[in-house]
């Protein structure tokens, strides 16, 4: 597994990263200065992503200085625009600098949100940092880099799903229900949840394509949790409930299946109910330890008290003493008998 440096994004970079979700930023250059990741330059969209690539990206690199470049595509996934993470590490840069940037990249991905990153590219010469170079990267990618333990597990899961016979409609019926495949963004969101990038994920079944999509991934406060639950559509949710119990700090992962009664179609109710078991199985295979499974019909139920009581149910420690049963009524007074002596 890769070693991380402990270097974090500074406040300015975090602000720009949050803007990337809904602004017209096209590209963001990130450098490491004073043991912090910082925003060095940024540009806004002018044309298509292909038109803007050569206009902006080559001008951002320096011959002897590594950097990261986050470049926004025009395509979107369920979370928003997709991005390219380009790592510029020229051969002429000091070895220490190259090692520093290589070992900090995982932190940048975590800060930015791996589910937003569609592709990664490593460049060492200027010719690679161009639209032509990027397209060459797409068409002639060499052998993949060594995988981390978690990436290896995720790859194994993906291969097992691929080899499973889902039938013509990519759906598998089992004794435990129906297994719809989950999207790459959904899988990456689950990985990011375990890394601490998020504490809340929401999943939606695409009834037309018969897939499970990631519809939300964020860090929220507990009081914001009820507001995430739609009142007219079913959803699956994963939430990390941070609390203390008997003096111990605990992070409990809760799976929530929300179904707002008859506001949903019969098909939607059937699909969410049938897919739940198999979806939970996939989540647990990916290493998520689910502390509690809940089913609700209204987000207002998700209070701190409710979650705490569900995870730590109250036990009756004072059992009533066993009461000795009373004898039958009207037994009368006890009789005293004397033994007769022989005369």
Short summary:
Helix content is 30%, strand content 28%. It has 343 residues and is of the alpha+beta class.
CATH topology of the largest domain: Severin
The percentage of residues in β strands lies in 25-35%
Radius of gyration: 30 Å
Distance between the termini: 105 Å
Regarding quaternary structure, what we see is: single chain
User: Helical proportion?
Assistant: 25-40%
Topology:
Blueprint: E1 8-9, H1 11-20, E2 25-33, E3 36-44, H2 49-60, E4 67-77, E5 80-88, H3 95-112, E6 117-123, H4 131-139, H5 149-163, E7 172-174, E8 177-179, H6 184-195, E9 200-206, E10 211-218, E11 235-245, E12 248-258, H7 266-285, E13 290-296, H8 304-311
Parallel strand pairs: 1-3, 5-6, 12-13
Antiparallel strand pairs: 2-3, 2-4, 4-5, 7-8, 9-10, 9-11, 11-12
């Amino acid at each position: 597994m890769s070693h991380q440096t402990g270097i974090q994004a500074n406040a300015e970079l975090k602000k720009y990263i949050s803007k990337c979700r809904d602004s017209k930023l096209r590209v963001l250059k990130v450098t490491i200065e004073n043991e912090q990741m910082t925003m060095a330059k940024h540009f806004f969209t002018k044309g298509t992503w292909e038109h803007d690539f050569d206009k902006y990206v080559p001008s951002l690199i320096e011959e002897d200085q590594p950097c990261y470049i986050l470049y926004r595509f025009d395509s979107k996934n369920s979370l928003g625009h997709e991005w390219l993470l380009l790592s510029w590490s020229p051969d002429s840069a000091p070895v220490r600098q190259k090692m520093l940037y290589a070992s900090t990249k995982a932190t940048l991905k975590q800060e930015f949100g791996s589910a937003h990153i569609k592709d990664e590219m490593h460049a060492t010469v200027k010719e690679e940092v161009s639209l032509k170079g990027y397209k060459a990267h797409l068409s002639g990618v060499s052998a993949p880099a060594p995988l981390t333990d978690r990436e290896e597990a995720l790859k194994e899961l993906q291969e097992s799903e691929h080899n499973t016979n889902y039938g013509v409609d990519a759906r598998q019926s089992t004794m435990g229900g129906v297994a719809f495949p989950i999207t790459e963004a959904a899988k990456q969101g689950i990985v990011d949840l375990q890394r601490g990038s998020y504490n809340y994920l929401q999943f939606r079944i695409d009834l037309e394509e018969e897939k499970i999509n990631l519809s939300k991934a964020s860090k929220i406060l507990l009081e914001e949790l009820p507001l995430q639950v739609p009142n007219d559509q079913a959803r699956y949710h994963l939430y990390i409930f941070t609390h203390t119990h008997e003096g111990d700090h605990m992070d409990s992962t809760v799976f929530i299946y929300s179904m707002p009664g008859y506001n949903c179609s019969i098909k939607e109710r059937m699909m969410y109910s049938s897919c739940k078991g198999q979806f939970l199985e996939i989540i647990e295979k990916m290493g998520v330890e689910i502390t509690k499974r809940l089913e609700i019909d209204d987000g207002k139920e998700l209070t701190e008290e409710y979650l705490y009581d569900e995870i730590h149910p109250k036990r009756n420690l004072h059992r009533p003493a066993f009461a000795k049963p009373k004898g039958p009524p009207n037994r009368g007074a006890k009789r005293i008998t004397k033994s007769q002596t022989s005369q």
